[in-house]
Write a structure and sequence with these properties.
Elements (H helix, E strand, L loop, with lengths): L1 H27 L2 E2 H8 L3 H13 L3 E8 L5 E7 L5 E7 L3 E8 L4 E8 L5 H19 L8 E6 L2 E3 L4 E3 L24 E5 H12 L8 E6 L3 E7 L2 E3 L24 H6 L1 H6 L1 H10 L8 H9 L3 H25 L3 E5 H4 L7 H11 L6 E4 L6 H24 L2
Parallel strand pairs: 4-7, 7-10, 11-14, 14-15
Antiparallel strand pairs: 1-3, 2-3, 4-5, 5-6, 8-9, 11-12, 12-13
Helix pairs in contact: 1-3, 1-13, 2-3, 5-13, 8-9, 8-10, 9-10, 10-12
Protein name: ROK family protein
Family: Belongs to the ROK (NagC/XylR) family.
Organism: Dactylosporangium darangshiense
């Protein structure tokens, strides 16, 4: 028994050392053994053993030499990109966006197409076909994908396998429905809230880089918020943090009594794209079918459209005032079809209104630079981080 315990401890140390060497190699790119020893704090023999094991497992590869002192050259190592693959998916009511990336984050294939979200089985068939198409384009099989990350509206209840609070995805609130995603790509998958992923995308690739406390607020087909606190995604007790569609904003609005307000939440009913159009029509504006139509008309000087946009500014300002009072973010990143409107109509008026609603200095408000790719990029960021652990675990299990 004592021998077994010693062997187990030795194996654990070996895995921890390999994880440290692998992570540092990924962070630094092409790197030598002496550099790895210096930056990990491990001895050169330990680093050499970890490099040999990782290279044998197909996770690292030699990529050349770097000249050193006294004419000596050091072998350089880098992460082998083909050691793992991530399939990232953004599932929306209107579009699905998918991408396939290797282990170092290079996108090998990408495609966007109209979503077949009205029926769950049609959406699963669509995503399966897209996974097959992208895998073939990258020269791999679907089963070679290490991890699939699905960004969806609503909250994934792992106990029942359902999506809650996702009215735009009919059928996914049935017990076990999420399990349909298991056969789409590879053997392992995760389901994340789409707006949470957008916040991760902003933190990794967008305006949130280097910002410890910020929120990503999406106003479009629906409304939602991703929260980054101290550099980490905050999910809440049930994973429902950021469901701002249910904020009690808009009680005095004529849309408050609509059935959608009970189903989708009051703020979402009055502030989403459908709410903007409904308000404009109630005010007497004709010939508008989308929120973009309303904003375009307001920019052109239409008085009724400007009144509708002013109501949107009021709704969004009051929501952000509550968010600011509770979370005190440094930055608010606006996304979604409505939230991404140019600053002259939305961002600037909201910022000005906030100064009257919030006692302390309000946060910066900026429109996302990632646009419609925010969710997909967040899915890639989450997937790449998890996939590196998975390939290490697989290598350790294989000895």
């Amino acid at each position: 028994m004592q021998t077994t315990a010693i062997a187990s401890t030795t194996s654990m140390l070996r895995v921890m050392n390999e994880r440290a060497v692998f992570a540092e190699t990924f962070r630094r790119g092409a790197v030598s053994r002496p550099e790895l020893a210096q930056h990990t704090g491990l001895s050169k023999p330990t680093v050499a053993g970890a490099l040999a094991n990782l290279e044998r497992a197909g996770l690292l590869r030699q990529v050349g030499l770097r000249a050193g002192a006294a004419g000596r050259s050091a072998v350089l190592y880098e992460v082998r990109p083909e050691a793992g693959w991530v399939f990232a998916v953004d599932v929306g009511r209107s579009y699905v966006r998918v991408a396939l990336a290797d282990l170092v984050g290079r996108i090998a294939a990408r495609k966007d197409e109209p979503s077949r979200s009205l029926r769950a089985r049609d959406l699963v068939a669509q995503l399966t076909g897209l996974a097959e198409e992208l895998a073939e384009s990258a020269g791999i099989r679907r089963d070679d994908i290490t991890l699939a990350v699905f960004g969806t509206p609503g909250i994934h209840d792992k106990a029942t396998g359902t999506l809650h609070l996702a009215p735009n995805l009919p059928g996914w609130n049935r017990r076990g429905s999420v399990e349909r995603l298991a056969g789409i790509a590879g053997r392992t998958y995760v389901v994340e809230n789409d707006i949470d992923l957008a916040a991760v995308g902003e933190a990794t690739y967008g305006l949130g880089r280097g910002v410890r406390h910020f929120v990503y607020v999406s106003v479009g087909t629906g409304t939602g918020m991703g929260i980054i606190i101290d550099g980490k995604l905050y999910r809440g007790f049930r994973g429902a943090a950021g469901e701002i569609g249910y904020l009690p904003v808009g009680e005095d609005d004529p849309l408050a009594g609509e059935p959608a307000a009970r189903r989708r939440g009051l703020f979402e009913s009055v502030a989403s794209a459908d709410g903007v159009v409904a308000m404009a029509r109630r005010l007497g504006l004709t010939g508008v079918n989308t929120a973009k139509d309303v904003f375009d008309a307001a920019r052109a000087g239409d008085a009724l459209a400007r009144r509708a946009v002013a109501r949107e500014v009021d709704h969004l300002s009051h929501a952000l005032a509550g968010i600011t009072a509770v979370l005190d973010p440094e930055l608010v990143v606006l996304g979604g079809g409505v939230g991404s409107q140019p600053g002259d109509l939305l961002t600037a008026p909201v910022a000005e209104r906030l100064r009257d609603l919030v006692a302390l200095r309000p946060p910066r408000i900026e429109v996302s630079t990632l646009g419609t790719d925010a969710v997909l990029l967040g899915a890639l960021a989450v997937g790449l981080n998890d996939a590196r652990d998975l390939v290490l675990q697989s290598a350790a299990a294989a000895g």
